[in-house]
Amino acid sequence: MNALDFERPTSLAEALALMTPSPEGSQAWLAGGQSLLAAMKLGMATPSLLVDLQYVPGLRDIRVDTGPDGVPALWIGAMATHASVAASATVRGFAPGLAALAGGIADAQVRNMGTLGGSLAHNDPAACWPAGVLAAGATIVTSQREIAADAYFQGLYTTALEPGELIVGVRFPQMAGLHYLKFEQPASRFALVGVAVAHAGPGQVRVAVTGLGMGIARWPGAEQALCVQFGLAALSAVTPDDLQALGDLHASAGYRCHLAGVLARRCVAALTGEALPRHAPLAPLAVQQAPATSDSEAAPKDGFGGRQLLAAPPAQVWQAILDAQNLQASIPGCEALAQRSPTDYEATVKVGLGPLSVRFKSDVTLHDLQPPRSLTMVFVGQAGALGSGQGTARVRFEPTPDGGTLLHWWVQVQLSGRLAQFGNRLVEASSRKLSEEFFERFSRVLGVPADRPPPSAWHSLQRLLARWFSLFRK
Ligand SMILES: Cc1cc2nc3c(=O)[nH]c(=O)nc-3n(C[C@H](O)[C@H](O)[C@H](O)COP(=O)(O)OP(=O)(O)OC[C@H]3O[C@@H](n4cnc5c(N)ncnc54)[C@H](O)[C@@H]3O)c2cc1C
Predict the structure, then answer these.
(1) Which of 113, 155, 297, 352 is the most exposed, having the fewest neighbouring CB atoms within 10 Å of its CB?
(2) Candidates 26, 27, 119: which one to mutate for ligand 1, based on the most atoms within 8 Å of Cβ?
(3) pLDDT score of 382
(4) Which residue range is the domain that position 121 belongs to?
(5) For residue 362, how many other CB atoms are within 10 A of its CB?
(6) Are 118 and 35 in contact (CB under 8 A)?
(7) How far, in Å, is the centroid of ligand 1 from the Cα of 35?
(8) 190 Cα nearest atom in ligand 1
(9) What is the pLDDT of residue 23?
(10) Are strands 405-416 and 304-310 parallel, antiparallel or unpaired?
(11) Number of compact structural domains in the chain
(12) Each residue's pLDDT tens digit, 80-106
C-alpha cells in the first residue's frame, strides 16, 4: 500500500478546503469505500490523500423539496447509503422504484456502506444507480454546479466531475412511475443487464440500460415507442439494434440485448399493470457488435478482427504504425517508448479511466515483416500484481484502387492473474474508450484533418491497438 494522508473533516467547507488538487499526487473523496478501497488494493487507484466524508453533516439528507420549477422534487444526499434509501419512507412515498433499486444493490454489508454519491462518481458500467438516475432525468448537484444526468454520464467509469468536485446530492423530479429490474450476477448482484423505465406523463418516457458494457446509456428506440403509447404493445416492434453491447464470458452481446428487451417489457408491465404473456413474442435481434470477420482464409479459432478501408496509402500507414515517435505520440498515457532494435520496443504506459489508472510495461516485438503488406506484432505486458497479458496481432495492408488501404487484422489475446478475472467485456469496453483518444492522436500524426470524420478503418485499427494496450490496464 502506498503511503497516504487521511483526513476526516466535520464540515463541508473544511472538506472542500482540503481538496486542493496538486501535481504531486491525486486526492480522493472517501464515501463508503466499497469501490475505492478495492481499486486501491488492486493498485488501480493510488491517492495521496483520502478525505473521508462520513462526518460531513447534511450529506445524508433525504427529503422532498420544492424543485427549481416550483414542483416537489426528491433530494437524496450523496452520502445516503443504499440501505437508508431503501428504508426511507420519503423515497418510498415519492418514488418507490428508487427505494426498490437501492434495496436490490449487493448485499446488506455493501448496502450499509455504499452510497449514492460514491456509486455515481465511480460510474461502474454495471451499476444500478446510474440507470435510475438517468431514466429519472435527475440532476446531480455538486459543490460547483448542477449537472443534468444526460450530461453527467460520459462512458465507462467516466463522468463530468472535475478533479476535487464533490457530489452533494441528487434531485429527482416528480414521476408518474419508475421501475428498475436487473438480471443480476449471482455473486455480486451487479447487473448483468439492468433496465430502468421512468414515466413522467404522456410522451415523457425515459429508458436507461446498464450492464451492456460501455457504461449507462439511454435506449432511444424504446423511448420513442413508449412516448407514443405507454404500454406493452408499443414495445412489440422495438428491436435492440440501437443498443451497443459487448460480450464476455458471462454473456454474449446478443444475449445482453435480448435481456434488455425482456427487462424493458417487464418494467413496462409493472408500471402499467398489464399482464405479460407467458411467452411474450420478442422482436428479432439486430445486435451491433465489433466486426469479427477475418480476412484470413483460415481464421484462427479464437480471437477477433476485421477488415476496413483506410484513407491513406499503405506505405504511409506502415511508416506511421512502426515509427516509435509516432506510436509514443499516439498512445494515450505513453510515458516512454524505447526502440531497442528495429523490431523491438519497450513501452511504459499509464492509462486510466475516470478515477482508475494503472501503469504497465510492455514489450512489443515485430515478426514476419513484409513491408508494406503485412506484419505480426506480439505484445507482452506486465501490470505488477494485476498479472500479465500477451496479444498477437496479424496485420495486412492491401492497396485499394483509390490510393487508400484495406486493412486486415486478427488478434488473439491471453491474460493471466487478476487481469484474467476481469473478463473480456471490461477489457474490450475500456479498449474502445481509450481507442477514441488513440485515434485522435494517430490521425493527427498521419495528417488527417481533425474535423474530418475518421474513415471506418480507423475504428478497426483503433480497436486493435487500443485493445493491446488496454489489456494491461486493469
Ligand atoms: C460486493 C459488491 C457488490 C456490489 N453490488 C452492486 C450492485 O449490485 N449494484 C450496484 O449498483 N452497485 C454495487 N456495488 C457498488 C456499491 O453499490 C457502491 O455504491 C459503490 O461501490 C460505491 O461505493 P461507495 O459509495 O462506498 O464509494 P467509494 O468506494 O468510497 O468511492 C467510489 C468513488 O467515488 C468517489 N466519491 C465518493 N463519494 C463522492 C462524492 N460525494 N462526490 C464525488 N466523488 C465521490 C470516490 O473518490 C471514489 O473515486 C457493489 C459493491 C461491492 C463491493
Answers:
(1) 297
(2) 119
(3) 74
(4) 62-272
(5) 25
(6) yes
(7) 5
(8) 8
(9) 59
(10) antiparallel
(11) 3
(12) 999 999 999 999 999 999 999 999 999
